[in-house]
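ESCALATION

Customer reports they have been waiting on this structure for their group meeting. Please prioritize. Original submission:
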Amino acid sequence: MRVLLAHKLYEITGGAEVFFHETERVLRENGHETLMVATGGAGTDHADNVILFEAPAYSEGGFLSKLANLPASIYDQKKKRRFAEILREFQPDVVHVFAINVHLSPSIIVAAKEAGVPVIATFNDYKHICPNYKLFANGEICFACKGKTFYQAALKNCCKGSRSLSVASSLEAYVHNWLGIYDRIDHFTFSSDFMAHKTLEFWPEKKVSWSKVRNPFDSRKFDASGPYEPFGVYFGRIIDEKGVNLIVDAAGVIGDFPIKIIGDGPDLAKLQKQAEEMGLTNLEFLGPKWKSELDEIISRASFVIVPSLWHENFPYVINQSFAFGRPVIGSRRGGITELVEHGVRGLVFDPENPDELAERILQLASNPDEVVRMGTAAKAYSDQCFNDDVFLQEVMFAYDSVISAADSF
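Update from on-call: job pushed to the front of the queue and completed.
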């Protein structure tokens, strides 16, 4: 099968890019012909089966420059024409789009449909129903744009705290709705039931064809034999919706049990100051860690904390934790509870209850046998459900369904 995969960024900056690259790898290694289309800088290293568009400069310059770039950031005719050329040259059986807004533009979906190529869409965030991607605004869960009231994003100033960006994102959502962009997608895939059901809730008028395609992640490649040393760890972005502040608060009431925080982000300095003012000696900020250095810490921890305040879809951090045999203490948000079965592969807590996270930490800190039991269960579940064979089966089901439907016409 010839598969064209399109995503807004080629360089890996987060879980969405990992999903994009890993999907291509699994397909290619199983004999399918792939072409990746994304954006990147002039010096970006890439494989031969990659076409990079120039990264947009929509946020650069003054007001007039940003205003001039706005139409292309919403619906880029130039990229549509170039994508149509790529389709004619590559002749894919299916186009698989991931996050494409702003950088690539949903105009490529229209190009694919005009060329008669079926389109699969995988969404790792809520941009298709929420202008700010997260269903989270000003520190709390937000469904204000439900019912296509996208102007709420501008009123709430919820897109990176920028009025101009919030207005532009509201306008973008209205234009995409008017153009029927999402009506042109043949089949959606979601990693979590939560995101699928929330999408259906926001789109009651649409007939949505969808299937579950969980994160491409081969857990079997990870060694879970590391010791369970007495510390917990958080790793990821340090930003408000990730709920790292809950860990700082909990650290003040769990005695001397050590917690390590790995990562960087806009809230780092504020949380470091809070920890210092609280006199916390059991909380350590390690800064960003990557690859083997990060793996080494995770593989020694007793457990990993995922305290998200927003409805996180299907966090890769949980995949990584389970692959190393580490149980997870996760918030009752989004798709997290679909992975973290309470009392089996970890513990869940209510992020609106300030004491419950501390209780969960102490529960595992004082029961090392429970940590081992849950960690062993997490690894067994991960190896069974997250490997290349399972992912290939799930994604090929989605591809075959749209190709069969197209052939029936």
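Sent to customer with the following note: The first strand starts at residue 2 and ends at 9.
Escalation resolved.
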